[in-house]
Amino acid sequence: MDTYNYYTFIVGALLYVVFFIYESFKQLRAENLTYFLSNNYLLLFAPVYFFFGMGLLLGFKPLGVTKIILFGQVTLYVFIVNIVCIAYYTLINIYIYREKNNYKWIKS
User: Fold this and answer.
1) Residue 43 within a domain
2) Domain membership of residue 12 as a residue range
3) Most buried in the list 36, 70, 76, 86, measured by CB within 10 Å?
4) Segments of 37-87 assigned E as strands
5) Could you give the CA distance from residue 38 to residue 99 in angstroms, rounded to a whole number?
6) What's the rounded Cα separation, in Å, for the pair 96 and 89?
């Protein structure tokens, strides 16, 4: 499949970013600054990072940009997707690790 569904990605990303901004401002208004260091915020922020990285790549309507070869057989698409996914899954793993430690601490 050589085509990307731009509109689904754009609508989904915009809805999520609007929700993320709303929740962030709600917590700022309540002056709940510890929320921004919490696991819940980390879990909400991880997809925003993913959308940012994919938005940089898919923001160009001509798909020729995604097929630019950077080095060897690595295209711009593969390079950016790998970096974004590594960071995205690292944030998710940090969330899981913290939750697991919090559960152990509460249980004992």
Assistant:
1) yes
2) 6-107
3) 76
4) 69-71, 74-75
5) 10
6) 10
